[in-house]
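PROTEIN DATA CARD
Card holder: Beta-lactamase family protein
Chain length: 477
Origin: Alkalisalibacterium limincola
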Amino acid sequence: MALFRTGDSPFLRIRVLAFAALVPIAAAWSSTASHDVDARSATAFGERQLPGLAITVLRGDEVLFAKGYGRVDTARGGTVDGATVFQLGSISKQFLAVLVLSLAEEERLSLDDSVLDHLPDHAQLPPGLTVRHLLNHTSGLRELLTVPEAHAGFDDLTRSRAELVALVRQLPVDFPPGTRWSYSNTNYTLLALIVEQVTREPYEDALAERFFRPLQLSSMRQCLSRPRPPADAVGHEWHEGGNVEAAAENMNWIRGDGGLCGSAIDVARWTRLLATGRVVPAAVYEGMTAPTQLLGGSLAEYGFGLSLVDLEGRQRVGHNGAMRGFSATAAYYPDAAITIVVLANRGDVRTESIERPIARQLLGLPEARVREAPLSPEQRHRYLGEYDIGIFDVQVLERDGQLWLEMPRPGPTTSLTHLGNHTFAGDADPDAYSVTFDGTDGAAQSLRLLMGGMRWHGLRSVGDEPVATPEDDSRTR
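Structure generated from the sequence above:
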């Protein structure tokens, strides 16, 4: 196996997967299983009417399945294959997290450093806010994507990184650091700035020097605002019954929190290398994939740039990515050494709902089935109300005797099917959305929401209690 140094990193050497070809199929892999993965993937591609889709599956270090479906660009053609480059969205966060952890191993920073020590001109930040709070999304920093001024910067390709930084300096902190978990892209925007202060180079250059070139991840790089087909997939949106090219986004404003591009095969290789101690030492990865403990003692199912939400009791480490025109999922199942990467060149696609059925097949889990459990009007009534999940409030309301979950975009609005034990599947996509309420008597005071491949914890908004009578099944809010 090829051996490489990682620049000035103290890690002695990094072992690289020896792939004889881009997509060799392991001899031991069952042809029936391979056919089933292909059939599932082709069905998902067709049912969702995607422009293009790439899927790679590894078992251990072996490529078990790698295939592309559809077009790089619906207007100009080009076939998706294993080498096609997609925008990865928030899958990018784990790369930056690993870079931060590497710098911490070198003692060039500490996870317990005050962010103000590195970014003293961000005077709105509390002194107790640390690098660790940014990594695990417990900072309380306002989510950049909820700020209207930010969207103008994403749309205007001439807007500079300095203008983004100026906007971030104005964002408030919504809760004391460490007290709760709430996903915020702003955290990783700041982490990229910290890395650039420490290394004195653009964060993508540091990633290339330390990881991408040594690990031979040749497709990995900071995205261009305008893709260059045929190697780069073109992003699409669903509009009036068809796939149309998505507007370009300003990559000067998407750095650290997203912004990286790569192929399905390279993302899969990275995922496996990282999980097996060949990027950072095993102890560092173990810390990266430990649940986050909040000050009140509760745990959040999130580490550093990685979600830890399991699949029906099987340990899963992964992340989703969402960009304008692109959707992505990368997942690793440690007990089976299975890696699955799904990349699509259309936005607002729940790619985890393509990945999870493949995982169930490979892990020997039963097919997911939604079976409705009876729910009386009185029982429905206790769940109604508004819940604060940090990034925004979500509403649970009733329409014609059925519960609905409502929230601002990019969250879903979906009817809910009761599965029993205070748990509901989101009918819009049961593999992507589910809600579990607390089982206390009276009005539910909290919920756990599966969304975006992450578990959000919400508390009933102060003063918000169900007010309609239980007998009234027609109420809405």
